[in-house]
Amino acid sequence: MLTPVLAGAAGLVLLLLGWLLRAAAPSLALGRSTVTAGVVALAIAAAALLIGGAGLVLTALRDASAGPDQADPQQHADLAEARAAWREALRERALLPWLHANLAAAPATTPLPHARPAPPDLHSPGYSRAAYSSPGFSSPGVEGLTDGRGRPRERSAEFTGPGYSSPDFTSPGPEGLTDEKGRPRPEGPGFTGPNEV
Question: Residue 184 phi/psi, 5° resolution?
């Protein structure tokens, strides 16, 4: 394991040093010797890597040829016993306490349904009617399908309006520009001042 790594690192360092020495002083014999030592170290690293890889492949082939029948029967018995002990401990120490705790914490009764809010008073003075007509269908929610007690409504029941309260003011929008049928007023918007009622 360590021979390819150490020999490869040493070979690279020796090659770099040898090349630097040869570039600085080409006539110096130390530069040539260092480059030769680096090449030999890299060759040793390559040979060790090939030998180690071949040994790894041979070991894998040998272990793959040995089937599960050739394994130790005592090892199989110990493994089966350990699995059974683990399953029993999982059931007794984890699953059953968790189930008992959740069953004890479960509510005994079902929660009561939420009461439906009262519809807004459409005839109050602060409520202004929109300038469009009803689309002719009821809401798909609980408000449109059931009455206040949760019983199904008959199909002829009409939509009672949205479940919000109206503001205490009216907007200066389309109500002043159109009449009750949605047509533009010929005389313009009818504005009442703060003193006129």
Answer: -65, 140
